[in-house]
Amino acid sequence: MNEKKEILVAKIENGTVIDHITAGRALAVLKILNITGKEKNRVSILINADSKKMIKKDIIKVEERELSADEVSLISLISLDATVNIVKGYEIVKKTKLTLPKRVKGLLRCNSHTCISNQDPEATPTFNVIESKPLKLSCVYCRTYLYEEDVLYQILGEKQ
Questions:
Q1: Contact partners, residue 65, CB within 8 Å, separation at least 6
Q2: Domain ranges of the chain
Q3: Tens digits of per-residue pLDDT, 28-37?
Q4: What secondary structure letter does DSSP report for 123?
């Protein structure tokens, strides 16, 4: 059988390609990156693309932008299998396989209303990563757990 490869989204000259995003999570990644569609740089989104490795995956290409460490950490919480590729002159110059940080600080809030991090502005919400799959975080102040669906809810503002 003769297999034909198609390029579904054009290569970018400079910027970031986020590949192997968990299928259906591209919109959550866009929210993490605060991409609304009003930016001047071009953004390409491919949802539910065929993948040999994952069956289905999402891909995001953002021209003329590199991600911050906080953005990469948040993406790892919702799509640990993603890779972040930095592109310069149409070539990948850096490929990063995401890993979960040991600790997540100031990016999420604790679900417990009585937690000190929700009462005292000086107490930055901080979570230790307990498990990666399924995702489980523990608040360092009150030990309340956050799970993947909690993280997605905080990012998207809606139940998954």
A1: 15, 16, 41
A2: 15-97, 103-156
A3: 999 989 999 8
A4: S
- Dihedral in degrees, nearest 10, Cα atoms 149, 79, 7, 66: 120
pLDDT in tens, 93-138: 999 999 998 999 998 999 999 999 999 999 999 999 999 989 999 9
Among the four given CATH numbers 2.30.30.20, 3.40.50.720, 3.40.630.30, 2.60.120.10, the one describing domain 103-156: 2.30.30.20
CATH of domain 15-97: 3.30.70.140
For the chain, how many residues are written? 160
Burial-class residue 60 by CB neighbours within 10 Å (0-12, 13-18, 19+): buried
User: Three-state SS for 19?
Assistant: strand
